[in-house]
C-alpha cells in the first residue's frame, strides 16, 4: 500500500506541473539580483533566496551619477554600469562587489554592453548621439577607451530628419558571434552595425521602428533578434533575421510603451514589459504569438530578468520623479516587483522608497 501511495504521489507531481518553467531539476540555484537606483545613485544587491537587500553600493564606493543600466558579462564576473549624468561607465567585480574602473565616455551614457567574447564593451551615449568602444582584457582587469563615434555626424543617412528626427542610440545587443550589433534610436528607427568596422549595414527609420525603443534580445537558436518600442498609445515587437538583418514581422505587444524583455530559462517564451499599461505580454517563441499576460506587473515597470530556475520574474519599477526619460514614465511605488511565473501574479514588491529603480541583472553565484 505504501508503495502504491508513493507511486500515485509521484505521478501526481509529474502531471500537475509543480516544477517551475525553466527549472532544471539539478538542484537549487543561488543567485543575486542587482538593480540600480538613479535617484539615490546607489546599486542594490538582492539575495535571490530571501529577496532582501544584502548589499548596497553608494557614491562612497564609486557609484556614478544616475546609474542607468547594469549588465554582467556572460561569465557573471564583471558588471558594466552606464551612468547617465556622469557620462561614464563603471566596471564592478561581482565576487567582492568592488568598483575597479570608471571610464569617461560622453554625456548621457545610457547602456553598456559587453560582447559575448568579452573583448569589448560598447556604450550608447544617448543625448550625445554617440557610441563608445571600450577594449576589455578581463584576465588582467584592463579596460581602455578606444574611440567614441558621433553617429549622426558619421553616417549621412542619419542626417535625414524626415526619416531620423532624433538619432539618439538607446539600447543595443550583439549577434551570437559578435559580428554585428543592433541599436534602437530614441526618435524612432533601428540600426545594424558591423562590430569590428562600425560599418552601418542596415538603417530602419521611424516609419518602421517606433520611437523609444529599448528591449533587444537574441533568440535561443541565435537566428532572430527581437526589439521593441512604443509610447503611451503604442507597443510593438519587431523580429529580425540575424543573417540578413531583414525585418520578418511586427507584432502588437497588447500594451503601451513596450520596454523590457526577457526570455524564459526554458527558452520557450519571450516576455515583454509594457511600461505605460503596467502589464507584461508573453509570446510563444516558436510562433511569435501572444499566449498570455501578466495583467499587473507594478507601477511603471521598466526592465526585467528571470531567476535561473524560472520560478520568478524580477521587474524594476520607476519612481515618482524619474531621473531619466523622455516621456511619461513615472510610477508611484519604486522597487523590485517579483512575479510568480506559474500563477502570473505579482507576489511581492521589494520597496525602495524615494528611488528611481531602473537597471537590473541576475548573477548566478552557486549551483
UniProtKB/TrEMBL annotation:
Gene3D superfamilies: YVTN repeat-like/Quinoprotein amine dehydrogenase. Keywords: Signal. InterPro entries: Host-pathogen_enzymatic-act (IPR051200), Lactonase_7-beta_prop (IPR019405), N2O_reductase_N (IPR011045), WD40/YVTN_repeat-like_dom_sf (IPR015943). SUPFAM superfamilies: Nitrous oxide reductase, N-terminal domain. Residues 1-19 form the signal peptide. This is YncE family protein.
Amino acid at each position: 500500500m505504501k508503495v502504491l501511495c508513493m507511486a500515485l504521489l509521484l505521478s501526481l507531481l509529474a502531471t500537475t506541473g509543480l516544477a517551475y518553467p525553466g527549472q532544471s531539476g539539478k538542484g537549487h540555484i543561488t543567485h543575486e539580483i542587482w538593480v540600480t537606483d538613479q535617484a539615490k545613485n546607489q546599486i542594490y544587491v538582492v539575495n535571490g533566496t530571501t529577496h532582501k537587500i544584502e548589499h548596497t553600493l553608494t557614491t562612497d564606493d564609486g557609484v556614478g551619477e544616475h546609474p542607468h543600466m547594469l549588465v554582467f558579462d556572460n561569465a557573471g564576473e564583471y558588471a558594466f554600469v552606464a551612468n547617465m549624468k556622469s557620462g561614464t561607465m563603471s566596471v564592478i567585480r561581482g565576487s567582492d562587489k568592488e568598483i575597479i574602473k570608471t571610464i569617461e565616455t560622453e554625456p548621457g551614457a545610457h547602456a553598456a554592453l559587453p560582447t559575448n567574447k568579452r573583448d569589448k564593451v560598447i556604450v550608447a551615449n544617448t543625448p550625445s548621439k554617440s557610441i563608445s568602444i571600450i577594449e576589455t582584457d578581463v584576465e588582467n582587469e584592463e579596460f581602455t577607451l578606444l574611440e567614441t563615434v558621433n553617429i549622426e555626424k558619421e553616417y549621412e543617412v542619419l542626417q535625414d530628419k524626415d526619416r531620423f528626427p532624433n538619432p539618439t542610440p538607446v539600447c543595443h545587443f550583439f549577434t551570437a558571434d559578435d559580428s554585428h550589433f543592433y541599436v534602437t534610436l530614441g526618435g524612432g528607427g533601428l540600426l545594424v552595425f558591423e562590430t569590428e568596422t562600425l560599418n552601418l549595414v542596415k538603417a530602419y527609420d521611424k516609419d518602421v521602428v517606433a520611437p523609444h525603443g529599448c528591449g533587444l534580445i537574441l533568440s535561443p537558436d541565435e537566428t532572430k533578434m527581437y526589439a521593441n518600442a512604443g509610447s503611451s498609445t503604442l507597443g510593438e515587437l519587431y523580429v529580425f533575421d540575424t543573417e540578413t538583418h531583414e525585418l520578418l514581422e511586427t507584432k502588437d505587444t497588447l500594451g503601451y510603451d513596450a520596454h523590457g524583455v526577457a526570455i524564459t530559462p526554458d527558452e520557450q517564451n519571450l516576455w515583454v514589459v509594457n511600461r505605460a499599461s503596467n502589464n507584461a505580454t508573453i509570446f510563444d517563441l516558436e510562433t511569435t504569438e501572444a499566449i498570455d499576460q501578466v495583467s499587473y506587473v507594478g507601477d511603471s515597470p521598466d526592465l526585467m530578468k528571470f531567476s535561473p530556475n524560472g520560478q520568478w520574474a524580477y521587474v524594476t519599477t520607476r519612481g515618482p520623479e524619474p531621473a531619466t526619460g523622455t516621456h511619461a514614465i513615472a510610477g508611484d511605488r519604486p522597487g523590485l516587483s517579483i512575479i510568480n511565473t506559474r500563477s502570473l501574479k505579482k507576489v511581492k514588491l521589494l520597496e525602495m522608497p524615494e528611488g528611481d529603480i531602473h537597471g537590473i541583472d541576475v548573477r548566478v553565484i552557486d549551483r
